[in-house]
Protein backbone atom coordinates (compact mmCIF):
# COMPACT_ATOMS: atom_id res chain seq x y z
CA UNK A 1 0.00 0.00 0.00
CA UNK A 2 2.73 2.34 1.11
CA UNK A 3 4.71 1.54 -2.03
CA UNK A 4 1.76 2.30 -4.26
CA UNK A 5 1.32 5.75 -2.66
CA UNK A 6 5.03 6.47 -3.03
CA UNK A 7 4.87 5.30 -6.64
CA UNK A 8 1.96 7.62 -7.41
CA UNK A 9 3.73 10.57 -5.84
CA UNK A 10 6.87 9.78 -7.81
CA UNK A 11 4.84 9.59 -11.02
CA UNK A 12 3.18 12.97 -10.42
CA UNK A 13 6.52 14.62 -9.58
CA UNK A 14 8.14 13.03 -12.67
CA UNK A 15 5.33 14.20 -14.94
CA UNK A 16 5.56 17.74 -13.61
CA UNK A 17 9.34 17.66 -14.08
CA UNK A 18 8.97 16.34 -17.64
CA UNK A 19 6.41 19.03 -18.37
CA UNK A 20 8.82 21.74 -17.16
CA UNK A 21 11.65 20.20 -19.23
CA UNK A 22 9.57 20.12 -22.40
CA UNK A 23 8.59 23.70 -21.73
CA UNK A 24 12.26 24.71 -21.37
CA UNK A 25 13.25 22.84 -24.52
CA UNK A 26 10.56 24.55 -26.50
CA UNK A 27 11.70 27.87 -25.14
CA UNK A 28 15.25 27.27 -26.34
CA UNK A 29 14.35 25.65 -29.63
CA UNK A 30 15.90 22.28 -28.61
CA UNK A 31 14.44 18.83 -29.41
CA UNK A 32 12.93 17.39 -26.24
CA UNK A 33 11.76 14.19 -27.96
CA UNK A 34 15.25 12.70 -28.16
CA UNK A 35 15.93 12.99 -24.46
CA UNK A 36 14.35 9.79 -23.14
CA UNK A 37 14.70 7.31 -25.99
CA UNK A 38 17.74 5.50 -24.74
CA UNK A 39 16.06 4.69 -21.42
CA UNK A 40 13.12 2.68 -22.66
CA UNK A 41 12.01 0.39 -19.84
CA UNK A 42 11.44 -3.08 -21.22
CA UNK A 43 10.64 -4.66 -17.87
CA UNK A 44 8.12 -7.49 -18.13
CA UNK A 45 8.44 -7.65 -21.88
CA UNK A 46 7.73 -11.06 -23.37
CA UNK A 47 8.17 -11.10 -27.10
CA UNK A 48 7.44 -14.01 -29.37
CA UNK A 49 7.71 -12.54 -32.83
CA UNK A 50 10.38 -14.03 -35.06
CA UNK A 51 11.65 -10.70 -36.28
CA UNK A 52 11.46 -8.42 -33.33
CA UNK A 53 13.22 -5.12 -33.93
CA UNK A 54 12.42 -3.21 -30.76
CA UNK A 55 15.34 -1.84 -28.80
CA UNK A 56 16.34 -2.29 -25.18
CA UNK A 57 18.33 -4.82 -23.22
CA UNK A 58 17.04 -8.32 -22.65
CA UNK A 59 18.18 -10.39 -19.65
CA UNK A 60 17.27 -13.88 -20.84
CA UNK A 61 16.94 -15.11 -24.41
CA UNK A 62 14.85 -18.20 -25.10
CA UNK A 63 15.16 -20.15 -28.36
CA UNK A 64 12.73 -22.98 -29.15
CA UNK A 65 13.00 -25.41 -32.12
CA UNK A 66 9.72 -24.99 -34.01
CA UNK A 67 6.19 -23.69 -33.82
CA UNK A 68 5.03 -26.51 -36.08
CA UNK A 69 4.77 -28.99 -33.21
CA UNK A 70 2.22 -28.26 -30.48
CA UNK A 71 4.75 -29.47 -27.91
CA UNK A 72 6.87 -26.33 -28.35
CA UNK A 73 3.93 -23.95 -28.59
CA UNK A 74 2.96 -25.38 -25.19
CA UNK A 75 6.40 -24.46 -23.86
CA UNK A 76 6.08 -20.92 -25.22
CA UNK A 77 2.76 -20.47 -23.45
CA UNK A 78 4.11 -21.88 -20.19
CA UNK A 79 7.08 -19.48 -20.37
CA UNK A 80 4.70 -16.58 -20.92
CA UNK A 81 2.53 -17.65 -17.97
CA UNK A 82 5.56 -17.99 -15.72
CA UNK A 83 7.02 -14.65 -16.80
CA UNK A 84 3.85 -12.57 -16.56
CA UNK A 85 4.90 -11.05 -13.21
CA UNK A 86 8.65 -11.28 -13.67
CA UNK A 87 10.96 -8.35 -13.17
CA UNK A 88 13.31 -9.83 -15.76
CA UNK A 89 13.10 -9.11 -19.47
CA UNK A 90 12.96 -12.04 -21.84
CA UNK A 91 12.43 -12.72 -25.50
CA UNK A 92 11.31 -16.00 -27.09
CA UNK A 93 12.35 -16.83 -30.68
CA UNK A 94 11.56 -19.92 -32.75
CA UNK A 95 14.05 -21.56 -35.13
CA UNK A 96 11.47 -23.28 -37.36
CA UNK A 97 13.44 -26.49 -37.77
CA UNK A 98 16.54 -24.74 -39.12
CA UNK A 99 19.99 -24.58 -37.51
CA UNK A 100 20.77 -21.48 -39.59
CA UNK A 101 17.72 -19.66 -38.16
CA UNK A 102 18.74 -20.86 -34.74
CA UNK A 103 22.20 -19.33 -35.02
CA UNK A 104 20.69 -16.10 -36.28
CA UNK A 105 18.23 -16.05 -33.37
CA UNK A 106 21.06 -16.48 -30.91
CA UNK A 107 23.07 -13.71 -32.57
CA UNK A 108 20.04 -11.40 -32.42
CA UNK A 109 19.62 -12.12 -28.73
CA UNK A 110 23.34 -11.58 -28.06
CA UNK A 111 23.11 -8.19 -29.76
CA UNK A 112 20.23 -7.35 -27.45
CA UNK A 113 22.46 -7.88 -24.44
CA UNK A 114 21.31 -11.19 -22.97
CA UNK A 115 23.27 -12.64 -20.04
CA UNK A 116 21.61 -16.06 -20.14
CA UNK A 117 20.48 -18.14 -23.13
CA UNK A 118 17.89 -20.91 -22.68
CA UNK A 119 17.92 -22.98 -25.85
CA UNK A 120 16.28 -26.16 -27.08
CA UNK A 121 18.29 -27.06 -30.17
CA UNK A 122 16.82 -28.16 -33.48
CA UNK A 123 19.92 -30.29 -34.07
CA UNK A 124 22.04 -31.08 -31.00
CA UNK A 125 25.40 -31.15 -32.82
CA UNK A 126 24.79 -28.21 -35.14
CA UNK A 127 23.69 -26.02 -32.21
CA UNK A 128 27.26 -26.15 -30.90
CA UNK A 129 28.02 -23.15 -33.13
CA UNK A 130 25.21 -21.09 -31.59
CA UNK A 131 26.25 -22.09 -28.07
CA UNK A 132 29.85 -21.14 -28.87
CA UNK A 133 28.77 -17.74 -30.22
CA UNK A 134 26.95 -17.10 -26.94
CA UNK A 135 29.83 -18.36 -24.80
CA UNK A 136 32.25 -16.09 -26.67
CA UNK A 137 30.23 -13.12 -25.46
CA UNK A 138 30.16 -14.35 -21.86
CA UNK A 139 26.55 -15.53 -22.07
CA UNK A 140 25.68 -18.56 -19.91
CA UNK A 141 24.05 -21.30 -21.98
CA UNK A 142 21.29 -23.52 -20.57
CA UNK A 143 20.20 -26.40 -22.82
CA UNK A 144 16.44 -26.82 -22.45
CA UNK A 145 14.88 -30.30 -22.85
CA UNK A 146 17.29 -31.28 -25.65
CA UNK A 147 21.02 -31.46 -24.96
CA UNK A 148 23.53 -29.58 -27.12
CA UNK A 149 26.15 -32.17 -27.99
CA UNK A 150 29.91 -32.30 -28.64
CA UNK A 151 30.74 -28.82 -27.41
CA UNK A 152 32.15 -27.31 -24.20
CA UNK A 153 30.03 -24.21 -24.70
CA UNK A 154 26.97 -25.49 -22.84
CA UNK A 155 26.89 -24.69 -19.12
CA UNK A 156 23.73 -26.35 -17.78
CA UNK A 157 20.93 -28.68 -18.87
CA UNK A 158 17.32 -28.74 -17.65
CA UNK A 159 15.47 -31.83 -18.76
CA UNK A 160 12.97 -34.55 -18.06
CA UNK A 161 14.14 -38.08 -17.43
CA UNK A 162 14.17 -39.11 -21.10
CA UNK A 163 15.34 -42.67 -20.48
CA UNK A 164 12.32 -43.05 -18.18
CA UNK A 165 10.05 -41.76 -20.99
CA UNK A 166 11.12 -44.62 -23.27
CA UNK A 167 11.00 -47.20 -20.47
CA UNK A 168 7.44 -46.09 -19.60
CA UNK A 169 6.39 -46.46 -23.24
CA UNK A 170 7.93 -49.93 -23.47
CA UNK A 171 6.41 -51.05 -20.17
CA UNK A 172 2.98 -49.86 -21.23
CA UNK A 173 3.16 -52.07 -24.32
CA UNK A 174 4.30 -55.03 -22.20
CA UNK A 175 1.49 -54.54 -19.68
CA UNK A 176 -1.17 -54.33 -22.38
CA UNK A 177 -0.06 -57.28 -24.53
CA UNK A 178 -1.63 -60.75 -24.55
CA UNK A 179 -0.01 -63.97 -25.77
CA UNK A 180 3.21 -64.56 -27.71
CA UNK A 181 4.57 -63.73 -31.15
CA UNK A 182 2.88 -60.34 -30.99
CA UNK A 183 3.95 -58.05 -33.84
CA UNK A 184 5.83 -54.99 -32.56
CA UNK A 185 6.26 -51.94 -34.79
CA UNK A 186 9.08 -49.65 -33.71
CA UNK A 187 9.25 -45.91 -34.48
CA UNK A 188 11.72 -43.30 -33.25
CA UNK A 189 12.44 -39.57 -33.25
CA UNK A 190 15.03 -37.62 -35.25
CA UNK A 191 18.63 -38.81 -35.08
CA UNK A 192 19.72 -35.15 -34.82
CA UNK A 193 17.98 -35.02 -31.43
CA UNK A 194 19.89 -36.63 -28.56
CA UNK A 195 16.59 -37.36 -26.83
CA UNK A 196 15.55 -39.71 -29.63
CA UNK A 197 18.41 -42.00 -28.58
CA UNK A 198 17.55 -41.73 -24.88
CA UNK A 199 13.87 -42.52 -25.53
CA UNK A 200 14.81 -45.51 -27.69
CA UNK A 201 17.41 -46.72 -25.20
CA UNK A 202 14.81 -46.62 -22.40
CA UNK A 203 12.23 -48.47 -24.48
CA UNK A 204 14.77 -51.08 -25.62
CA UNK A 205 15.85 -51.74 -22.02
CA UNK A 206 12.41 -53.23 -21.29
CA UNK A 207 11.33 -54.46 -24.74
CA UNK A 208 14.52 -56.36 -25.62
CA UNK A 209 13.93 -59.31 -23.22
CA UNK A 210 10.43 -59.72 -24.68
CA UNK A 211 11.82 -59.69 -28.20
CA UNK A 212 14.58 -62.12 -27.26
CA UNK A 213 12.15 -64.62 -25.68
CA UNK A 214 9.68 -64.49 -28.57
CA UNK A 215 6.84 -62.71 -26.78
CA UNK A 216 7.19 -59.90 -29.31
CA UNK A 217 8.26 -60.09 -32.97
CA UNK A 218 9.81 -56.97 -34.48
CA UNK A 219 7.75 -56.21 -37.57
CA UNK A 220 9.56 -53.37 -39.29
CA UNK A 221 13.29 -53.29 -38.55
CA UNK A 222 15.80 -55.90 -39.69
CA UNK A 223 18.48 -54.06 -37.70
CA UNK A 224 16.47 -54.42 -34.47
CA UNK A 225 15.85 -58.10 -35.22
CA UNK A 226 19.57 -58.66 -35.74
CA UNK A 227 20.30 -57.02 -32.36
CA UNK A 228 17.51 -58.86 -30.50
CA UNK A 229 19.95 -60.59 -28.14
CA UNK A 230 21.71 -57.42 -26.99
CA UNK A 231 20.25 -55.89 -23.80
CA UNK A 232 22.31 -52.71 -24.22
CA UNK A 233 22.98 -51.11 -27.57
CA UNK A 234 25.80 -48.77 -28.52
CA UNK A 235 24.87 -45.40 -29.98
CA UNK A 236 25.99 -46.67 -33.33
CA UNK A 237 23.70 -49.72 -33.11
CA UNK A 238 20.77 -47.56 -32.09
CA UNK A 239 21.64 -45.26 -34.98
CA UNK A 240 21.24 -48.18 -37.38
CA UNK A 241 17.77 -48.99 -36.03
CA UNK A 242 16.80 -45.30 -36.07
CA UNK A 243 17.95 -45.18 -39.67
CA UNK A 244 15.15 -47.63 -40.51
CA UNK A 245 12.37 -46.39 -38.24
CA UNK A 246 12.92 -42.67 -37.70
CA UNK A 247 9.97 -40.32 -38.12
CA UNK A 248 12.25 -37.29 -37.91
CA UNK A 249 9.53 -36.03 -35.53
CA UNK A 250 7.46 -35.38 -38.66
CA UNK A 251 3.87 -36.72 -38.66
CA UNK A 252 3.86 -36.97 -42.47
CA UNK A 253 7.06 -38.95 -42.55
CA UNK A 254 5.51 -41.19 -39.88
CA UNK A 255 2.48 -41.82 -42.11
CA UNK A 256 4.70 -42.69 -45.09
CA UNK A 257 6.80 -45.09 -43.02
CA UNK A 258 3.74 -46.75 -41.46
CA UNK A 259 2.14 -47.22 -44.88
CA UNK A 260 5.32 -48.76 -46.27
CA UNK A 261 5.65 -51.10 -43.30
CA UNK A 262 2.02 -52.20 -43.47
CA UNK A 263 2.29 -52.84 -47.19
CA UNK A 264 5.37 -55.02 -46.67
CA UNK A 265 3.98 -56.92 -43.66
CA UNK A 266 2.48 -60.39 -44.14
CA UNK A 267 -0.57 -61.71 -42.28
CA UNK A 268 1.55 -62.99 -39.40
CA UNK A 269 2.53 -59.37 -38.66
CA UNK A 270 -1.05 -58.08 -38.62
CA UNK A 271 -3.95 -58.78 -36.22
CA UNK A 272 -3.38 -57.49 -32.70
CA UNK A 273 -0.25 -55.34 -32.77
CA UNK A 274 1.90 -53.13 -30.57
CA UNK A 275 3.33 -49.83 -31.74
CA UNK A 276 6.17 -47.90 -30.10
CA UNK A 277 5.52 -44.31 -31.25
CA UNK A 278 7.99 -41.77 -29.87
CA UNK A 279 5.72 -38.74 -29.36
CA UNK A 280 2.14 -37.59 -29.72
CA UNK A 281 2.37 -35.95 -33.14
CA UNK A 282 3.72 -39.09 -34.76
CA UNK A 283 1.50 -41.35 -32.63
CA UNK A 284 -1.72 -39.80 -33.96
CA UNK A 285 -0.65 -40.13 -37.56
CA UNK A 286 0.65 -43.69 -37.16
CA UNK A 287 -2.55 -44.66 -35.28
CA UNK A 288 -4.70 -43.20 -38.08
CA UNK A 289 -2.71 -45.17 -40.66
CA UNK A 290 -2.98 -48.47 -38.77
CA UNK A 291 -6.70 -47.86 -38.19
CA UNK A 292 -7.33 -47.87 -41.95
CA UNK A 293 -5.73 -51.32 -42.45
CA UNK A 294 -8.53 -53.90 -42.26
CA UNK A 295 -6.08 -56.67 -41.28
CA UNK A 296 -5.16 -54.82 -38.09
CA UNK A 297 -7.77 -55.91 -35.55
CA UNK A 298 -6.45 -53.86 -32.62
CA UNK A 299 -3.39 -51.89 -31.63
CA UNK A 300 -1.76 -50.49 -28.52
CA UNK A 301 0.22 -47.34 -29.27
CA UNK A 302 2.39 -45.09 -27.13
CA UNK A 303 2.96 -41.32 -27.21
CA UNK A 304 4.65 -38.47 -25.39
CA UNK A 305 3.99 -34.81 -24.49
CA UNK A 306 0.30 -34.84 -23.49
CA UNK A 307 -0.59 -32.66 -26.47
CA UNK A 308 -4.24 -31.60 -26.40
CA UNK A 309 -5.05 -33.43 -29.63
CA UNK A 310 -3.63 -36.64 -28.19
CA UNK A 311 -5.56 -36.27 -24.95
CA UNK A 312 -8.69 -36.21 -27.10
CA UNK A 313 -7.40 -39.30 -28.98
CA UNK A 314 -6.87 -41.07 -25.63
CA UNK A 315 -10.38 -40.15 -24.45
CA UNK A 316 -11.71 -41.44 -27.78
CA UNK A 317 -9.69 -44.69 -27.56
CA UNK A 318 -7.59 -43.93 -30.65
CA UNK A 319 -4.24 -43.50 -28.81
CA UNK A 320 -3.47 -45.73 -25.80
CA UNK A 321 -1.24 -43.56 -23.64
CA UNK A 322 1.02 -40.55 -23.50
CA UNK A 323 3.93 -39.63 -21.28
CA UNK A 324 3.12 -36.36 -19.58
CA UNK A 325 6.04 -34.02 -19.13
CA UNK A 326 4.88 -31.13 -16.96
CA UNK A 327 6.29 -28.23 -18.91
CA UNK A 328 5.39 -25.88 -16.04
CA UNK A 329 8.10 -27.61 -14.00
CA UNK A 330 10.68 -27.43 -16.79
CA UNK A 331 10.04 -23.72 -17.30
CA UNK A 332 10.28 -23.15 -13.55
CA UNK A 333 13.61 -25.01 -13.41
CA UNK A 334 15.03 -23.16 -16.40
CA UNK A 335 13.96 -19.69 -15.27
CA UNK A 336 14.98 -20.47 -11.68
CA UNK A 337 18.43 -21.34 -12.95
CA UNK A 338 18.58 -18.20 -15.11
CA UNK A 339 17.60 -15.93 -12.22
CA UNK A 340 20.14 -17.54 -9.90
CA UNK A 341 22.80 -16.86 -12.55
CA UNK A 342 21.64 -13.26 -13.05
CA UNK A 343 21.96 -12.82 -9.29
CA UNK A 344 25.57 -13.95 -9.57
CA UNK A 345 25.08 -17.30 -7.78
CA UNK A 346 25.59 -20.94 -8.83
CA UNK A 347 22.38 -22.87 -9.59
CA UNK A 348 21.53 -26.18 -7.96
CA UNK A 349 21.78 -29.30 -10.11
CA UNK A 350 20.75 -32.89 -9.51
CA UNK A 351 23.18 -34.79 -11.73
CA UNK A 352 24.99 -34.49 -15.04
CA UNK A 353 24.78 -35.60 -18.69
CA UNK A 354 27.74 -36.49 -20.90
CA UNK A 355 27.35 -34.48 -24.09
CA UNK A 356 30.34 -36.13 -25.81
CA UNK A 357 32.62 -33.27 -24.83
CA UNK A 358 31.95 -32.68 -21.13
CA UNK A 359 29.72 -33.63 -18.20
CA UNK A 360 26.99 -31.00 -18.29
CA UNK A 361 25.50 -30.25 -14.84
CA UNK A 362 21.78 -31.00 -15.08
CA UNK A 363 18.47 -30.56 -13.33
CA UNK A 364 16.07 -33.42 -14.12
CA UNK A 365 12.28 -33.81 -13.67
CA UNK A 366 10.13 -36.91 -13.50
CA UNK A 367 7.46 -37.95 -16.01
CA UNK A 368 3.95 -39.44 -15.58
CA UNK A 369 2.16 -42.02 -17.71
CA UNK A 370 -1.35 -40.89 -18.72
CA UNK A 371 -4.09 -43.04 -20.19
CA UNK A 372 -7.89 -43.17 -19.96
CA UNK A 373 -7.72 -44.28 -16.34
CA UNK A 374 -5.97 -41.18 -14.95
CA UNK A 375 -6.38 -38.45 -17.56
CA UNK A 376 -8.92 -36.62 -15.40
CA UNK A 377 -6.85 -36.64 -12.21
CA UNK A 378 -3.45 -35.89 -13.75
CA UNK A 379 -4.31 -33.33 -16.40
CA UNK A 380 -7.68 -31.79 -15.52
CA UNK A 381 -7.83 -31.84 -11.71
CA UNK A 382 -4.27 -30.49 -11.57
CA UNK A 383 -5.29 -27.49 -13.69
CA UNK A 384 -2.95 -28.33 -16.57
CA UNK A 385 -5.85 -28.36 -19.03
CA UNK A 386 -9.51 -27.31 -18.75
CA UNK A 387 -12.18 -30.03 -19.00
CA UNK A 388 -13.98 -27.80 -21.50
CA UNK A 389 -11.10 -28.25 -23.98
CA UNK A 390 -12.19 -31.87 -24.54
CA UNK A 391 -15.32 -33.82 -25.39
CA UNK A 392 -16.32 -37.13 -23.83
CA UNK A 393 -14.74 -36.60 -20.42
CA UNK A 394 -17.09 -37.61 -17.64
C1 LIG B 1 11.98 -34.14 -28.11
C2 LIG B 1 11.16 -33.72 -26.95
C3 LIG B 1 9.84 -34.36 -27.03
C4 LIG B 1 9.18 -34.22 -28.40
C5 LIG B 1 10.15 -34.26 -29.54
C6 LIG B 1 9.60 -33.69 -30.82
O1 LIG B 1 13.26 -33.66 -28.01
O2 LIG B 1 11.77 -34.10 -25.75
O3 LIG B 1 9.03 -33.87 -25.99
O4 LIG B 1 8.39 -33.10 -28.48
O5 LIG B 1 11.37 -33.66 -29.28
O6 LIG B 1 9.68 -32.32 -30.85
From TrEMBL:
Stretch list, region Disordered: 30-60
Domain Periplasmic binding protein residues, every copy: 60-345
Key words, A-Z: Signal
Skewed-composition ranges (Low complexity): 30-41
Name assigned to this protein: Putative sugar ABC transporter sugar-binding protein
Major localization class: other
Cellular component terms (Gene Ontology): outer membrane-bounded periplasmic space
Biased composition (Acidic residues): 42-52
Record flagged with keyword Signal: yes
Subcellular location: Cell envelope
Short name of one Pfam family: Peripla_BP_4
GO MF annotation terms: carbohydrate binding
Xref: InterPro entries: Bact_Solute-Bind_Prot2 (IPR050555), Peripla_BP_I (IPR028082), SBP_2_dom (IPR025997)
Native species: Amphibacillus xylanus (strain ATCC 51415 / DSM 6626 / JCM 7361 / LMG 17667 / NBRC 15112 / Ep01)
Highest rank taxon of the organism: Bacteria
Signal peptide: 1-25
Amino acid sequence: MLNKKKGLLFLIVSLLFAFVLVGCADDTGGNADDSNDSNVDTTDEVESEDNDTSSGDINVGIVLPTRDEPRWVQDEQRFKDALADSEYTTEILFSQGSSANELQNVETLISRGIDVLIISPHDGDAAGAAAQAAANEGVTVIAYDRLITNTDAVDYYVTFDSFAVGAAQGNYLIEHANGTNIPLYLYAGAASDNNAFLFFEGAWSVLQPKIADGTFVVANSSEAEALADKPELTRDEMGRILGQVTTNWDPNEAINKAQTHLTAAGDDLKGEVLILAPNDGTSRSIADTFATDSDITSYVITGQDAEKASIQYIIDGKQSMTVFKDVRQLVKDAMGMAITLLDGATPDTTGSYDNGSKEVPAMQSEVIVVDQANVQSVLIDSGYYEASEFTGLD
